[in-house]
Amino acid sequence: MILNLVTRNLKLYFRDRASVFFSLLGVIIIVGLYVLFLGKMMVDYSTQLVGESARFLMTSWIVAGVVSVTAITTCNGAFGIMVEDTALNRLRDFKVSPIKRWQLVLGYVLAAMVVALLMTLFTLVLGELYIFLDGGEILGFLSLIKVLGIVLLSVFSSSAFIFLIMAFIKTQNAFGTASSIIGTLIGFLMGIYIPIGNLPTGVQTLIKLFPLSHSGVLLRKTMMNEAMDIELLPEEFKTFLGLTYKLNGEVMGDIYHLLYLFISGLVFYVLAIVIISKKRDK
Amino acid sequence: MEKIIDVINLKKNYGEIEAVKSIDFYVEKGSLFAFLGPNGAGKTTTINILSTLLKQDDGEILIDDLKIGQNDELIRQSIGIVFQEGVLDPLLTVKENLLTRGAFYGFSKEKLKERIEKALSVTGIENLTNRRYGTLSGGQKRRADIARALIHAPKILFLDEPTTGLDPQTRKNVWNTILNLQKQDNMTIFLTTHYMEEADKADYVVIIDNGEVVAKGTPSYLKDEFSNDLLKLKPKDDIKLEEYLKKSQINFVKETDLYTIKINESLASLKIVNDVKDNLLSFQVLNGTLDDAFINITGKEIRE
Known about the structure:
The structure holds two protein chains of two kinds. By secondary structure, chain A is an all-alpha fold. Chain A has one domain (2-281). Helix content of chain A is 78%, strand content 1%. In chain A, helix 3 packs parallel to helix 8. Chain B is of the alpha/beta class. Chain B folds into two domains: 3-223, P-loop containing nucleotide triphosphate hydrolases (Rossmann fold, 3-Layer(aba) Sandwich); 228-287, Alpha-Beta Plaits (2-Layer Sandwich), CATH 3.30.70.260. Chain B has eleven helices and 14 strands. In chain B, a hairpin with a 2-residue loop joins strand 4 and strand 5. The relative contact order of chain B is 0.14. The chains are: A mainly alpha, B alpha/beta. The A-B interface holds A 1, 4-5, 7-8, 11-12, 15-16, 88-90, 92-99 and B 51-53, 73-74, 76-77, 79, 81, 83, 85, 87-89, 91-92, 96, 99-101, 103-106, 148.
């Protein structure tokens, strides 16, 4: 039953070419910005510090960012089906059928996770290809496993975050607006358009508070480590790029990034479910 | 007689607005039941409550002896609904749509396939199975909607204005499909419609207005009770006819050269025609229609 709903939602997502494109728009903007001018600026800057491997290092930096953003924007696209079903009254057909409301909702959530996972992996493959063609190396086996693990966790948290936002959205107009805002803001919130070190302290705090940015940190650490041992990088440079977050002057450990991602995901899901079930009672 | 739907003292408010104010009616098993009313009368609210979409504020409803609000899951197994606007997915083919929605009813794979084939053949859209729903014409879409509502062989089929917006030929086809379902499969059909010629074919009609039942009965009863037959006369000499009508104290309406007189039954026209036959070019006796009855009952045209 739920599998059946997930299949339906997946077909609807992938058959709507425009929505697939738009859910990748944020990513395309980032890549465009990087290729056009950000990239050269950052490579020039880091060459002074690390020499030869600067290019590989910075390409890994941007690919890590792009992969973490994809999970969010494609989840958003996939949840568009849920909004559309409500807004266009298609939901009524499900409501008069002998299925439970939670099965229906789970169908949307699982489909969003599958979409995000597939699209993120797709982006990862393209990213690795780009790194390779640009003179870098493809991820080693262990790093790949690590990256996949982080991707899974980031898909979980991203779907939770988007699901919570969607719990408030009833019309397609609102969805469109929310999508454009998410699509544009996410690059900043994840510290990708501009390296976190270039931003004012207040914004830096905001980014650190934003749970999904922690998946960016973890991905950067793993992927940039392929270019060179990141432990050798100056501390200042690492915080500037968002390779590490400092809390009260202390460097945040990996386990805290993981926990923050996971727990925030759980909290978002619980909140979203509470909101949705309250709505139903009305 | 067996009641398949029994509505007792049903009430529904939206805040201050009383959408449905205590209505009672029942539907006989296997009948074609028409639910009429001007826009905003409470038709859709009632249909939504009967189909478990909306909770009533007060009153009791039995669907096939199951109480709404207590046995909704079971009730949903035995009802099919065709909504006013299509609810299938435009990007999926007709078959994919039916497979998705059909899976809700817990059939085995073979049984589901069989049910879908039956639904497709009853609605006559076997040749459209692999077309995307979004690419179908209005009439084809409506047939697919009906096929979807039929997958689980419901005992009651609700249709909310099933023929609105279709061209006359398609309307007729869709309508025949509905009639066949009732006659051949002995399905109970509950429909709302804008078209009086359709309501005229129902076994029983309930008219609601402002959230209240204002009339109910068979179409012929409603016509007899609430509409007049009309006699139309075309005289050679207007003045002579008017003199006669005034003298006999008969009310009339004159439209160019045609005089229209309301009469209680068509036989009453015989005397008038007989009295003025030498002065007549032609005459016509029209039976009262459900349209007239509707207007007389609600004071409104149905297509407002």
